[in-house]
Amino acid sequence: MRGFTLVEVLIAIFLITVGIVGVLSVFPLGSQTVKSAQMASQAVNLAGAKMEELISKSYSDPALSPATTTEDYATIADFAFHKRVTRVSCVHRSNLSEVSCSYDQLVDPYPMKKVEVTVFWKQLSAITEKKVKAVSLISKR
Predict the structure, then answer these.
(1) Residue 128 in domain
(2) Would you say residue 130 lies in a domain?
(3) The domain containing residue 23 runs over which residues?
């Protein structure tokens, strides 16, 4: 009965080690991908929540006054790694170009406002910001 030589055992250990290291190197990448998807999903939810909040208001509500509002990092409850910028502007109803909000009701009886909500986030390992944007139009009822 013949056994394994030392060289065969060393080669087998080497191959097993390479296989294990290869498999283990995939776990951090998978974890990072899951975290990235989670941050993006939270950003979409934050944008949608703000958009729903603004759409539910009446056209003349002060929250829909033309302005840009920034909720910086660590100021949104439970979302320390996200920043939200909300921009409200008036637009012309036919070509959607931005116009002054002091329009004449006789000339433009159906004024519209454009609401843009942009949510930014930073990954723990990334230097650059990522973002998602939601845009909607609100007309006077």
Answers:
(1) yes
(2) yes
(3) 6-139
> In DSSP terms, which residues pair with 129 in a beta bridge?
122
To the question of pTM greater than 0.70 for the whole model, the response is yes
**What is the arithmetic mean of pLDDT over 94-109?**
71
Residue 47 identity: A
In the chain, what percentage of residues exceed pLDDT 90?
38
Number of structural domains, the chain? 1
At residue 49, what are phi and psi to the nearest 5 degrees?
Answer: -65, -45
Amino acid letter at 133? K
1 lies in a domain? no
With respect to residue 50, please indicate whether it lies within any of the assigned structural domains.
yes
Q: What are phi and psi of 56, to 5 degrees?
A: -75, -10
Judge contact between 50 and 86, C-beta under 8 A: yes
pLDDT in tens, 106-125: 666 668 899 999 999 987 66
